[in-house]
């Protein structure tokens, strides 16, 4: 799947010469996984371009942040249908995965010159600004009071980031890098978009934090359980093997060890420590077991994000089969094709084993006939 996404991205940016940015590939994969949940039923001609449209949306959302070259879409379906599909997916897919705007990063916007000249009011002067509220008594007197230590009128960089984070409703900041860490350590990189899609469906349905108290209070345990179920689903589809008690305990131990390493080794930039690891807890075996049971009870595994794992496995197996076939074709010796107008047909192969055998039989017959005729001719001369 990752290879198909990269091919789609490169086809959208034919002038892009270097390796694709990992954030662009991850966003395209995440959008693709989310689209299977939010738009699970598409028309046949639209389903063909689902991956291409998600890659196009990812390029458009990150083209300024990553300074991407011009995007040149060449969809595999008619332009009219593709425009409708693109608009539909762009509308339903949350933009929280894209790079935040400058305003959300904490920068304060200044009024335009038109409003500065007018004293901060519209030109008409008849209606107040929509965002302007009547100041309270405390707000009116605040400008005349001397601010105490640590209380300034201008927000600092850290407080601005904290306010921007609290105001947002996106997934916990540590979930995406922790997912990437676990998948890289276990060589399951292609499963990262599926795990993220599962967490988004449960924790941030519809782009907003869930009201499920258990999910919010046990985010780390939920994350571990989702990772467990996704990897087990892939193993069952790929090899047909399930998991028993003897295999469950070592796997649980490995997952808990990976989570401990993730907390120690993963670095989340541009956020304070308390915000970066919001909701993280150190798990024990009982916490993991309770989360696995809770996920089964809530029927969270019936969603399209989980059922779509079968498609991921099929595409991976197909890609591996194509690689093997391509390798076989490269290593296979070249065969000469026999055509009607060439000398490679069997009837012209005079040095073949069959031709040699036929020639030996013909030679023996001819020599025998010659000997017989010679003997008969000599006898006739004697009789005369």
From TrEMBL:
Keywords: DNA replication, DNA-binding, Nucleus. Residues 137-157 have a biased composition (Polar residues). Transmembrane segments: none annotated. It comes from the Eukaryota. GO terms for molecular function: DNA binding. Its main location: nucleus. The keyword DNA-binding applies. Residues 10-93 form the ORC6 first cyclin-like domain. It is found in: Nucleus. GO terms for cellular component: nuclear origin of replication recognition complex. GO terms for biological process: DNA replication. It holds the Pfam family ORC6. Belongs to the ORC6 family. This is ORC6 first cyclin-like domain-containing protein. It comes from Fusarium torreyae.
């Amino acid at each position: 799947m990752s290879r198909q996404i990269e091919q789609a991205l490169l086809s959208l940016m034919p002038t892009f010469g270097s390796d694709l940015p990992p954030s662009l590939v991850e966003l395209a994969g995440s959008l693709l996984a989310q689209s299977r949940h939010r738009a699970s039923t598409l028309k046949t001609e639209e389903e063909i371009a689902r991956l291409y449209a998600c890659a196009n949306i990812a390029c458009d959302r990150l083209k300024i942040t990553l300074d991407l070259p011009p995007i040149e879409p060449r969809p595999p379906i008619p332009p009219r249908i593709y425009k409708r599909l693109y608009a539909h997916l762009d509308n339903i897919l949350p933009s929280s995965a894209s790079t935040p705007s400058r305003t959300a990063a904490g920068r304060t916007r200044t009024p335009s010159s038109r409003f500065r000249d007018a004293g901060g009011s519209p030109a008409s002067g008849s209606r107040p600004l929509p965002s302007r509220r009547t100041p309270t008594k405390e707000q009116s007197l605040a400008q005349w009071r001397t601010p105490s230590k640590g209380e300034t009128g201008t927000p600092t960089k850290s407080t601005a980031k904290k306010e921007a984070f609290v105001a947002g409703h996106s997934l916990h900041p540590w979930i995406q890098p922790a997912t990437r860490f676990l998948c890289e350590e276990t060589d399951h990189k292609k499963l990262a978009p599926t795990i993220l899609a599962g967490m988004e469906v449960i924790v941030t349905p519809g782009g907003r934090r869930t009201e499920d108290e258990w999910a919010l209070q046990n985010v780390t345990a939920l994350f571990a359980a989702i990772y467990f179920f996704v990897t087990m689903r892939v193993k069952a589809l790929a090899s047909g093997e399930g998991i028993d008690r003897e295999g469950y305990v070592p796997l649980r131990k490995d997952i808990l060890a990976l989570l401990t390493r993730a907390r120690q080794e993963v670095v989340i930039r541009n956020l304070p420590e308390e915000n970066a690891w919001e909701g993280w807890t150190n798990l024990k075996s009982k916490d993991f077991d309770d989360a696995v049971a809770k996920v089964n009870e809530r029927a969270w595994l019936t969603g399209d994000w989980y059922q779509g794992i079968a498609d991921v496995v099929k595409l991976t197996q197909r890609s591996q089969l194509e690689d093997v076939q391509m390798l076989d074709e490269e290593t296979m010796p070249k065969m000469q094709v026999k055509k009607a107008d060439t000398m490679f047909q069997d009837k012209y192969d005079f040095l073949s084993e069959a031709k040699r055998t036929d020639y030996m039989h013909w030679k023996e017959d001819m020599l025998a006939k010659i000997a017989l005729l010679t003997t008969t001719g000599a006898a006739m001369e004697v009789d005369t």
